[in-house]
Write a structure and sequence with these properties.
single chain, 587 residues, mainly alpha, 4-stranded mixed sheet, two-stranded antiparallel sheet, 28 helices, 8 strands, globular
Length: 587
Amino acid sequence: MSDARRAGVTTTGTDDAPVPRGLVVVAAGGMLLLALVLRHYGLDLVDEGTLLAQTERVRTGQWPYRDFHTGYGPASFALNASLLTLFGVHIEVVRIGLAVTHAIALAALTVLAARALGALAAATVLALTVSFFLPIAPGLFAVWNIPYPSWYAQAIAAIGLLAALTTDRRGAVALLASGICMGVAFCFKQNTGVLGLAGVLVWRAFERSEPEGRGSPVLGIALAVAVAAGGVAIVAAGLAPEGLGPTGTFAIALPVLVLAWRVALLRPSGTLWADAAWLTAGFAAVVVPLVLGLVWAVGVAPLARQLLHVGSGAASIYGAPYPGASELASAIAAASSGWRGMRKAMDVGWLFVLPAGQLIAVLRLRSYARTSTWRLLVPSAVLFYVQLYPRADLWHLLPMAGLSVVVALGALLHELSNAGATGRRLAVPVLGMLMVVATVRWLPNVGVVRAALSTRPPSPPAVERAAIRWDLASSPALRAVPDVVHAVAGAPQLVGFPALSVFNFLAGVPSPLRHDYFFPRLLSDAEEQAIAAELERVPQARIVVLHDSLAFFSEAFASHAVIAAAIERDFARVRQVGPYEVREAAP
């Protein structure tokens, strides 16, 4: 038996570091246990509610893009609708599926980090990822319970990266499997699949490069042009009036452009064509049937606008600028105000630390640099980070942050190693310090876990479809949810405005409208007029309205004044439940 086997590690058969099995088990098992403990904790009224309601639409026979509006891929709706059909229409079913997804994602991240950086650094990556990028909003919700398609897409993409790394042993089959995984990721979240596929292809160019001159510079340059085109597009869009802003454009586009430069210097052999063909074949085997099936079911125009975002204006509607130097300075200044300020400063800081680490890593990337896994993770992290366009905030960073943490930490450790004996001696203390920071960051969640494990008050579940611990809710809007569900139960149709379709799901009442989520500036004037007219034709519907600063609600009333006026005019308030108005057709 080898020393690696005795130490409880899995050897990879490559130049990568061994993977400790115990660490992988701790990552997956710990995440699964934590998610199961908090499966009854809180509820995100806006995003979670919308996604649950749209999943219920699919379960009852509706089609995305045709019967309701969404910009996500169809796979998360189909998956969760199937789970609800199999195991019952209950929020816990979706959350248990998410718990399994997160466990798989963390296990895959641990394997990738261990292979690239070693066991101790992988443990640090795991601690930082869980502490900073799987947050809990005390009294409100755990973010990992929200069925964002990104969670599923990134987990599947990570499996695709692991599949690609078996190419030396399994050959073309591994690339075919990787392409299939990226195709499945596309079905959940479109840009995740496309960028994941691009990352693997760039990695193959590094692996196929022949620096002694036998390869073809044309292949490297052609691939570099494609990567650079993406970077230039980010620059153009980012510097637009409603774009990312200079800081965001620099943070996202510069590593992409440097990656293109590194690729242009490669001399890949002609076998890169075969690699690209196998990857593309796997991707197309999933995506092409999906697109053709959706074209048949919903038509070309809705599919192009909502799935492919052709002419949707999504970038200008949902865009949010990247934090700049002034925001970072304000966050650092606020850190002295207490724990909340410190947390905000650390959260904003990641949006500067991660792209800086990516930039350093890609500047040093060579076809012979370090390990095969490292050469895969660097371009993958750089390209996955592009998903922060057009909405550059911490929430959109959460699902993909783990890979960037690996690369940023790897870049730091590499620089310490290059600094000589003193730098190498600092590596372990630095990892220890980061572990302490991660632990301190997570400590406030201990109270949440203890509360979730406490004895439930002696009363039956208030809402049949959601056995939520309402007694732990800190928000008046959240505490009032059971009473609102009871107030609208039995209604033939229900509309929640501006984004309260959570009550459609919880009460089991359908919506007469295609739209569940009235984000500011989402609708054209003609679409608003059509919805206002449609409300006149559904006098039997009840409407739940929340005038609140929650999420984008305040801005939504101003942006969709025509719809708000139609609700006010045609539906009388018949009940006030906490902060909610319950309305019925005016006599």
